[in-house]
Structures are given as structure tokens and as C-alpha cells.
Design goal:
The chain is α+β, with helices and mostly antiparallel strands. The protein contains nine helices and twelve strands. It has one domain. The chain is about 40% helix and about 15% strand. Helix 2 crosses helix 3. The protein starts with a helix and ends in a 6-residue tail after the last strand. The protein binds calcium ion (2 copies). One calcium ion binds near residues 155 and 172.
């Protein structure tokens, strides 16, 4: 009898233990489900903020076009304005921003606005020499690698099957097979990311050039917005490029401020710069060569817009990046979620 009571007690205790383990388990399951549900709800809100923030930007760009904007310069609202700093929408805020690089290619400041694609080197149109300088001077590649990369970029995008710039006629497929490349598209690049998969491209080279290249537009570079390093890569003599940058900066020596000088047309470019800072004959010749090469413009056809979406008290933020034309039509869009610590605003 005593024994039966004892085993019954042990059984009851076991059942208790089992039940309490189960309840902890079930509790954690419910807890996790709530957590997952809560996260998707936040993500959805962040996506909504991103989309309506971008709709605001698209309207802004379209209105510039409708207002007849033909010349784009860095001291204008699209490039930097408090309008884009914490635009309120839904339950959150949207911050449009871009990073500016100094002459040593380091990030120097952040602006609240868009960045134009016409300030960048277009890898679908740039010449061999421009591409070579891009890979060497901005990418940090050696001269040999820079040349080989420029050649690959041209052979990838041109429609013929002969390797560019070799004395002997060589078939592209055979030539690039030795670098393990089995497919030459013979088509224009549709994304700058395609460059990443070329032979000889290292993560470091890609990281260095990614903010200075584009695949959008006619290939002309806006002389009002191109950075000093891009002007040099285009073939402008160093001192001439520095004088263009000096001219643009205006009296306060800063670009993107009210006193900036703006180029409204390329015909009188040399005279206009000369009136602010004297160009010697070599510098004038260098500028003239660039102007007649038909590689410059004074406007912008495409823009890149990057925005951070924020909900109050949430450390998870949304990051949207779009390429849009000057009618506000989106050509490319990416939305990711980032933690507050993982981006600087
Ligand atoms: Ca080809
Ligand atoms: Ca200025």
C-alpha cells in the first residue's frame, strides 16, 4: 500500500515536471511568434515610409523638369535642402541623403538631397583611356591591371568579337578564356554591379570606384557636378581640373553653396572660367580638347536617391536606393533593412 502511494506521488511529480516544461516551451513559442509578427509589421511600415518618401522625391524631380530646369548644379535644392531632412510621412520620417567625397576620395560630408548620375563616369560610353585612368586613379589598380580592365569593359560592351587595342587580331572568347571568362555579352552594362564579376576586379577596386561610375544616360558628364577626380579621369590636366573646381566653388571656396559659379553652356566655358581664375595656354588647350570631345554637358538626365526611413523608438531602419530619370520615373529600386548603428545619417 505504502509503495503504491509512493509510486503515485512520483508519477504525479513527473506529470507536473512534464507539464511545466511544456508550458515554458509553449510560452517561448508564443513569444517568438509575437516577435516575428511584430517585426514584419515594422518592416511593412518602414517600406511604406520608404515608398511615400520616394514618391515625394519623384514629384520634386518631375516638378523641376516641368519648371523647365535645363542646367543642374550643386548649389540647387535637389542636391541639398532641409526639405529632404526628416520628411514626415505615416508614423515615421524619411531622410534623403548622399555622401560627398573630398579630393583625396574620402567621405567628407553628408548632404540632404539627391546625387546626379551625370557626375559619374559612364562605363557604357567611356573611352579606353578614361576607363584605364578610372581603374588606376580612383580604383587604385596598377597600370597593367588598369589597362586590362579597361580592355575587358570595352570588349564586354562592344558588339564585335575582336579584342580591343591589340596589334594582332585576337578573338575575344579565346583571349578571355585564359582569365576563366566563358561568356562575353557584347551588350551594354545594365548595372554597375556587373563590373564586380570581371576578372582582375578586387573588392577594394570595386569599393573605390562604385560611387564614381554609372550605366545611366548618354555618357556625357555634367561639368557643374563632376568631382575633381572624375574631371581628371576624363583627361583634363590636373591644374585645369583644379581651376574648374575653384571656379565652381565661388568666393567661399566651398561647392554646393549659394555663391557657386555655374556653367550654363559649353560655348563660353573657357572665357567664363578665365574671368574668375586665369587659365594658362596649356590649361585652355586641355579644356578645349575636352569640350570638343563631346563628353561634357551642363545638365543631368538621371539621379540616385538614397533614403533612410525611421519609426520612432525603433532601432531597425529602412534604406531605399533608387535611380530615377529627370521625369521622376524609377529605373532601379532596392529596399533593405539596416540597424541604426550600421549607417550614419
Ligand atoms: Ca565584344
Ligand atoms: Ca561656394
Amino acid at each position: 500500500m505504502k509503495n503504491t502511494k509512493g509510486s503515485l506521488l512520483i508519477l504525479v511529480l513527473w506529470v507536473f515536471l512534464f507539464l511545466s516544461i511544456m508550458s515554458v516551451f509553449a510560452g517561448s513559442l508564443v513569444h517568438q511568434q509575437i516577435k516575428v509578427f511584430k517585426e514584419t509589421e515594422i518592416d511593412r511600415e518602414l517600406i511604406n515610409i520608404s515608398e511615400s518618401g520616394m514618391a515625394f522625391v519623384r514629384n520634386f524631380v518631375l516638378n523641376l523638369n516641368l519648371a523647365g530646369q535645363k542646367v543642374y548644379a550643386l548649389n540647387e535644392t535637389w542636391a541639398d535642402s532641409d526639405k529632404f531632412k526628416g520628411y514626415e510621412t505615416g508614423n515615421g520620417k524619411f531622410y534623403l541623403y548622399h555622401e560627398q567625397f573630398d579630393n583625396n576620395l574620402k567621405i567628407s560630408s553628408k548632404k540632404n538631397g539627391l546625387i546626379d548620375e551625370n557626375r559619374k563616369v559612364n562605363i557604357n560610353y567611356a573611352s579606353f583611356d578614361v576607363l584605364r585612368r578610372l581603374f588606376v586613379e580612383i580604383g587604385g589598380a596598377s597600370q597593367d591591371i588598369g589597362e586590362e580592365l579597361a580592355r575587358i569593359v570595352i570588349d564586354f560592351r562592344d558588339s564585335d568579337s575582336n579584342v580591343f587595342g591589340l596589334q594582332e587580331e585576337t578573338e575575344e572568347y579565346t583571349y578571355y578564356l585564359r582569365s576563366n571568362v566563358k561568356y562575353i555579352p557584347d551588350k551594354k552594362f545594365f548595372s554597375i554591379k556587373e563590373i564586380y564579376y570581371l576578372p582582375y576586379i578586387t573588392a577594394a577596386i570595386y569599393e573605390n570606384i562604385k560611387d564614381f561610375i554609372t550605366v545611366y544616360g548618354s555618357g556625357k558628364v555634367n561639368i557643374n557636378t563632376a568631382s575633381l577626380s572624375v574631371l581628371k579621369v576624363l583627361g583634363l590636366a590636373d591644374s585645369a581640373a583644379e581651376k574648374v573646381s575653384f571656379f565652381r566653388s565661388g568666393a567661399d571656396m566651398k561647392e554646393g553653396t549659394a555663391d557657386d559659379n555655374v556653367v550654363f553652356g559649353l560655348n563660353n566655358l573657357i572665357d567664363k572660367i578665365n574671368a574668375v581664375i586665369a587659365l594658362d595656354p596649356d590649361e585652355q588647350k586641355s579644356l578645349h580638347t575636352l569640350v570638343i570631345s563631346n563628353r561634357l554637358c551642363v545638365n543631368s538626365e538621371y539621379f540616385m536617391a538614397t533614403g533612410i526611413s525611421i519609426l520612432e523608438n525603433e532601432t531597425r531602419h529602412g534604406k531605399i536606393t533608387c535611380i530615377l530619370d529627370n521625369f521622376g520615373v524609377i529605373k532601379d529600386k532596392t529596399i533593405v533593412f539596416v540597424n541604426k548603428e550600421n549607417h550614419a545619417l
